[in-house]
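Quick one: Formamidopyrimidine-DNA glycosylase from Fictibacillus enclensis, structure tokens please.
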Amino acid sequence: MPELPEMETFRTILSNQLKGRPITQVEINREKSINLNPSLFTARVRGAMITDIRRRAKHLIFQLNNGYALLLHLMLGGWMYIGNDEDNPERTKQVVLSFGDRKLYFIGLRLGYLHLLTAAQLKEKLEELGPEPLDPNFTEKIFLEHISKKRGTLKAVLIDQKFIAGIGNCYSDEICWQARLQPERKASELTKDQVRLLFQAIQPILTRGIEHGGYMENPTYKGDQKTGGYNHHLLVYDREGQPCRRCGTRIQKTEIASRKSFSCPDCQK
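--- reply ---
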């Protein structure tokens, strides 16, 4: 599932290529991927211009010049591709937005969605999300206060979108590795120094993920050399049996609350 670095990568790419361009056509191939009657959805979206593309947690927000916003969540298996009739993946496209001769294909939205919302609806939809971990206002003091109330594993705490927005299965493991902590450790068992190490690992890991284009493998457009670059820089996630980049011990794969998790049995305490 795309996490904060992947969605931030998409935001940058889509902003560069589609921001300021009017939507000339709308194609809906799966009604469950949207939240309105297809005719009404199309009528409100067609002709509108994308004035801004923002990210909130694992969502993208396409702000339209008619006051509405398109809220995207790719969920598991969802991705996007910018192309045209001759250049597009041989996959089922749930929604297609045309920008003249350029098209944005939404693929794999069987669990994800693209909803058209008013400003009030958008605020309500996102209001339960926790703080953005890359926000300057997300301080160590706030982190210490919030995590002191948690009783679950570090894995469960880090992927809780009401606690911190945008972290998922991959980067929770990467953060724990950076902090030298096992993801199955209980948050309530950490010392203040260990909590500090955990906090200090969050922003560098997410920033690193963004710099390398996230870990999603599918390109966003023809010739895309950025998307998925983090696959070559993973510290621990999906590296079962490979040597730890810090101590050389083989990485182990475990399961925590039905989620796969990767860690070093030696240098993560």
